[in-house]
Amino acid sequence: MGAQHGHHDALSVGGLGSPQQLSTPAYMYELDEIRLCLERSVCRTWWLTATLELTGRPALLVQGGAPGPADAGPRSASARSAKDTAIFAVNFLQRKLGILTLQLLPHFILEPQHRHTLSELASQCARIAQRLASQRWMVQRQLGAPCLIGSSKAMLTLDRSIEASCSDNRPILLLGTTGNEALQTALAIHLGSKAADHAFVKVDCEKTLESPKRWLARARGGTLFLCGVDGGTEADQEHLWRQLKQALGQAVPAVEPAAGVPAIEQDRGGCRLMIAQKSRKRPAGEGMCDWLYINLPSLSQRPDDLPLLTRAVLDYHGHDADDRATDALHHWCANYHWPGNASQLEWAVARLAVLTPNMRIGASDINQHAPRMLREGPLRPADDDDATDALADTPAADVPAPVGAAFLPGSAHWVRCVLEQDASVLARLPAGLNRALQYVGRRYHEPMTAEQLAQQCHVSASHLRFLFRDHLGISFKLLLQQLRIAHAKRLLLELPPRRVADVALSVGFNDFSYFHKCFREITGQTPGDCRRKHSLAIGTHFHDA
């Protein structure tokens, strides 16, 4: 375990910064999303105008849904009574973000129940502003395309869960997906809480070789986010929960939740624990403490948000959504069921954009490059308990993540042996592992999971994981990642030079920011730096495309 570099799963985050300091892509401009929220509000018919003033933003004016009585006519400001105007604070928890001023209909009587509804509307405006601030933070640090955008009913419900979680110290179980939604929800909670100035540590339990004690030490005072906890066998999961329970110093019996008192106190030496689980079933470690549960909505529950999400993916990966997106692309995205949720959507749309350079992505392109997904039929409710990470076309190992895998001592030997298919070395390994490494050496550029590889080699997935760790000292996913980077380095140095994006795609990476991160962490330099240094050494000049 000690061979694993301590920082490779960690993100150290600070404050969000002021709105003026953050770039604001059009699809993440909170005033546009708040405008939609106000226009769709059931109480829009109560006011003539609504004016929202957020700190650092221009005022937003939204017309009401019903005019005043025909005989009332316009009135001057001096003629209006105080009852005509209602002002509500736009607060996220105790932090003031702005004010919402409503010019009510002339004869509308503001009853207590109306005031409560309008106060909730102002709170929703604050939740949207806070969520999109966290999304801008994600984009600035290239942690994946934003997926918590849109104003669907499912997103507004998630907003309320995020706000409630920011002021609740209990550990959190994020149920329904381990993809981008879970990571971005965890970060939104972290950035909205008092722990925002402390470390946010992400650990993929299927990939890391560290012990839970080291995770907790690195997350001290901040947030520890775990994913991949349900990726192994039941025995693997029970072992992980026992280790985590021991590291947290919790008693084995279930903890009865006391009103207002978290089971795991967040003291000066502790951290906030968040765990993402693909299934919506309660985990084996449920009884270790008093959990706060958040059910993450699938994309099939957010059809109204899909056009925005599609644009966000294109923009994030450097493509002009106005030039590349078509009605056919939006129709396909809105009608496909996306079992892999946001991670699969990002992979599929980014792949289409790369395979159709400088062209609008039309129906023929989708039919050529994603025929299986086109044949899978229209949108249908996803079975979240049985949903896989993605289709067989979607590489689970390439889900965008904020961290890469450091090169482990000794793994360079196995990377070379697998790439060169060194039969004399591989033959000394157990038969199942030998078959696995030969298969990976031929197919490392294709989408691949441990389960698929185990099936090819006629062994169980849990036994295959054991073989990798016991004989190679490295997990399957880390070895696959390092094989891809090693081959990418070779391709980058070939003549004539190829575009970095094409190199990434050819070795199996479909998220280019993730490719850059992995390449830098494994080789100590960016792909462009690697190519430039080589060109200087041989006296040629490469141009990074």
UniProtKB/TrEMBL annotation:
GO molecular function: ATP binding; DNA-binding transcription factor activity; sequence-specific DNA binding
HTH araC/xylS-type domain location: 434-533
Keywords: ATP-binding, DNA-binding, Nucleotide-binding, Transcription, Transcription regulation
Organism: Rugamonas aquatica
Highest taxon, organism lineage: Bacteria
Pfam families to which the protein is assigned, alphabetical: AAA_lid_14, HTH_18
Protein name according to UniProt: Helix-turn-helix domain-containing protein
Positions of the Sigma-54 factor interaction domain: 148-354
